[in-house]
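tl;dr need the bound structure. longer version: we got a ligand (adenosine-5'-triphosphate) that a collaborator sent over and nobodys looked at where it sits. i said id run it. heres the input, straight from their email, havent touched it
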Amino acid sequence: MLELTLDRLTKRYHNKIALDQVSTEFTQGVYGLLGANGAGKTTMLRLLCDILDPTEGEVLCNGTPIRRLGGEYRRLLGYLPQDFGYYPDFTALRYLRYIAALKALPPQTARDKVEECICLTGLKGEEKQKIRTYSGGMLRRLGVAQALLNDPRILIMDEPTSGLDPRERIRFRNIISSLSRDRIIILSTHIVSDVEYIADEILLLRAGQLIQKGTVTEVAEQVKGRVWECMVSPAEAEELGQKYAVANLKNLAGMVKVRIVSDEKPIPQAEEAEPALEDVYLYYFDQAGPQKRQTYGENPYERKENVDVSDRAL
Ligand SMILES: Nc1ncnc2c1ncn2[C@@H]1O[C@H](COP(=O)(O)OP(=O)(O)OP(=O)(O)O)[C@@H](O)[C@H]1O
């Protein structure tokens, strides 16, 4: 079985520490790397892909430093960067054949894999369209397809769901679930719901440090006793929003149901609620300040459909 080990992995850009002594292991499964902007997610993924050199520490694959494995390691790897390069005037088919050639796949294998990846990512029927005509979701699926051409045992994706509409998000999650057998899949995001349902383990990265790792339930347990719900008037809700990290607001018959993440009980009538992953996210990453938290949408108490709390909090 494949095992990736990060051993005190550190990356400094001049005097800025982007990744700070991160040690952890990955075995088969889906891992969701969650963190706010600038937390160090891209840096960690690029170190894992051997695109960046660590300042200290190392990445090991089955005990051997990936530096030493070189091409042997890269053959195990599929990578979808945040902005993957493509030629807009190529058709998807031509582009995938081109990438297959770059990955040095033998011609028959290339033809088979291109077809397989087109089908797997739901692009069948659209593969002869020029990429410039693709929607954001189709483009992301094409990105996944190119990362899969060499049948990688390790699949690394940087913010693969950014800019996708809810339908494409669900589609993406289903693709990842179908790929998860026999692979290490690591994907970064700042959108909690994108990893909540598919990740076997969640890693929380804050200011370059790994602050939590575990299943969704294990990570959510970390805020047990710190999640509160209460029904208050709109004015009280506004006041609470100024003071606390508010995870959820719902208008109910003139009153507002408020979900708050706080070490202390915010008001006497607040009741403890079962923690969820987005509460954890809010607990660790709510750096926006109350003003920003409260200015989402025209009515701050209206929970907009398909808008992630984590998006709102940042
Ligand atoms: N080439 C670079 N030179 C200097 N600083 C950098 C460089 N790349 C990243 N950084 C800094 O390192 C920190 C971590 O950046 P990184 O891109 O890894 O974070 P991230 O979690 O992926 O953020 P985002 O979600 O915005 O992509 C940030 O403070 C960033 O400004």
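gonna send this back to them w/ a short note. Residues 84 and 260 are 38 Å apart (CA to CA).
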